[in-house]
Design a protein that fits this description.
Conjug_Trfer_ATPase; Rossmann fold; P-loop_NTPase; Conjugative transfer ATPase; TraC/Conjuga_ATPase
Amino acid sequence: MSKTSIHPILNVFLRLTGEWSLVGAPPLTEKQYKELFTTYPAFVDYFPIISYLPDEEVYVFDDYLNVAKIYEINTRYMAAKSEQALDTFNSSIALALNALPTYDSNPYIVQIFATKQPISNIGDYLESKIDSTLLKDKLTQAIVNIIREQSEILTHSRGIFPDSRLQGDIGWRVGEQKVYLIIYQKRTPNEWKKSKKTPSQQITHDLTSFNAAIQSSGIKLTPLLPHDLINWLSPFFGNERKVTPQDIELNRELANTDIGQQIFSEQPRYHHDHKEDTEKGIWQFGSKWSRYITLGGIEKCPRSGAITLGEQQTDGSSMILSASFFEKLPVGSMFTYTLIPQTDSQMKFEMSLVANKAADTVSREAYYANEQANTAYEEMMRNHEKVFYTQLGIYLSADNLETLLNDTETTISEVRSLRLLQVVDPKWDLFPQHSYIKALPCVYDFKNDRNATLRARKTYTSHIASLLPFFGNKSGGVNPCYIMYSRTGEPFYLNPFHHNDKEKVSHEVFFGPSGSGKSATVCYMTLMSMAVNNPRTFLFDYGGSFKLLADFAEAHGKKVKRIKFTRNSKDVIAPFFETKKALLEAEQAKNINEGNFVGNDESEESEEENRTYLGEMEAILRVMITGGNDIENANMTQTELSELNQALVRGLEMSVERGEPHARPIHMADAMAEMADKQREKGMIDTAKSLYEKESALRRWTQGLHGILFNRTASGFDPNYDLTLVEIGNLAQTPDMMAVAGLSAIYNITAMAEELQYSGRSIEIKIDESHLWAKINMLMDGLTVGSKVFRKLETWLCLITQDISDYKGDATKILANAEFWHLMKMSNKEIKQATKILNLDEEVQHLIKFPKKENGRFVEGVTISEKYPDTLVRYVLPPLILALAQTEGKEKKHRKNIMEQLGCTELEAAYHIAKDMTEKYKQFQEM
């Protein structure tokens, strides 16, 4: 008899007595009436979070009692690290897990979610970080638009080009891997009454040790705010609208609006009408289709970083880093970890129980269970290993059912090919809906799992640590200038000239062997810094590598000065430009000798960071006299150096006496001749002869090309120019001229920097093919001293070279002054040279074996800095930057053909080449 059926005799009696009408349905009973108003839980009712307490940094559950801590995890960069480094980090994570609070009843629940999310337009982000005074600058606007256009291509769901590490035609794309941590505990009201602390105080107290341990391992925890929580979860459940903090404040004023309602704004529909078992457990949230795939236990001991780091393999002298398991998962995947920390006593009790039960039977399964239980017990006793309950799974999300089913097959296949984790095929899953809901944030209930599904498995914390997504691929800061990427497509932002990205200085070394993409990458870095930092830039070019860069900058409003050292050159770099300041130093020395000098102890700057104008000019004078010959320079006696200094001061005085703006080599030669004449008159024939020889050497700098370039008056570098391009290629075969030109240029730039040091605008000096400078020791000595002075003048040096082996002896000192090193792909021989010269540690030696290059797609390198980990980076340059930096013979010929066909300039031809590159990317995306 059903609950609502009426006995026939009672039915007749009530109708005949008039209690009920003679015809029609009988009236409802009181129970039936109440059942009319029975409500069943909606999907959102399973999600307990309703509000946030900002002071306590906790989320409140719908019982208005229990709370949760939710963090975004800034993972530690561990890509391409050595096995020792990975294992050390793994141990530190395991120690942090062991520091989690444990309770026999009402254990804490720890949930970790790793997601693959699209990223906002990088061009928009770049624009938001640029000083507002620069946003109207034409070059800045152009660069922002270039990055914005490229970002649209890079973040396309199809990718920008095929990813050679992945099977099929999957494209490499830019996105973000986000990791979230949730920790909560559920107690009844009666249990909380026994506690001396509020739920917020209790969870904060209990997590003190864990927070300290996790942060000491190099992982940063940032409390997740409500708008970030909503923006993380709501797109997964069909709501693409972004929420701001202001929206959250506005919603607080509305009645009956909680956080869960804002996340699950789309009413879900369970896919009941499935025709195949493979469609079990599927939900639809608006336009999004979703399911949860349950993973079983661990089948073998996992390697460190098994989920988010690729596997390393040796390939000759190079190393290969495969795509990680997480990268192979479909777009929209979310890997979930649920950990239930247990007390040692509870785990030992359960191990003993299993062992005792297994001992009573003789089956192979029982024997194996007994062996496992005893092994685990021994590990806990001997090695202090902890065992937690663990449940793993993967949420999938797609725009349609067909894609979701395909993604399911892909995911199951990838899990099985990993040969590490068991997977429950959805068609055999007995609890698909239950598993989907219980894996949601803050929903999991350990008691329910133990009583109903038994999905959580006992796992060593060291094994859990190996699987966690804390092994990150992302590094860098938040200040975009150099925009690079990890192999997984996460942006790496670095601005060496921003105070938050450097420790002391912004000096850089860029080492890129021939064919490594050096010219294009340096061109990119230069333009990005000009757009973001607006420095006065000095580019020492060799072979016209940056000609089109200068043309592009000039076309976008920058004032460009081009200097070329030829016989017809109108440009002069005066070696003795700072005549007046040098004479003041000489006067100071004279006062010291006369006993009239009063020192100044107020300056706290180190001696090596103070300029000595006479010292700089003496260095140039020595080059002029010795021709840059190291042996002759080293053999100069103290007497000769004294004579040199006297001649220098006298030459400076002569220029003033003759009414000239600064001294020239002619004055130095005349001064030397004057000194020689005096020595001859005194009968010092040998001394006079030596001085006449030096005079003769100096006269060479007043004749021919030497005289044209260095014996004319000059006004120094003009500060009104944004970019000064100095072509030094013609001097490369004449070391003495190269040295004088280099030293004179550096000293002239330093003079400008002193005059403009309070202008708020820095100076960047980039020297291409700097190994040509490194061959000239006297030049490098002056440059090394100059680099130390630069720091207080906000002047930064970047040495660019393709041959690090030319840096020998004292030349290596300048490399030590650099805080940022950019090392491109190199051969094994070059790695050995770089290791010796740059004094690379073992980790960098390991890392430098991984960079690779795919023509027309990307180049890779290693970035080393003080503030950030040594990082394997990928440069995916905008098409226009690539077109501006094409220096190969075939590339130049192609550019010339376009110029002839279209009758356009070389810069316009580069625009056409860039357009063709962009079209090829778009064609791939439309395949």
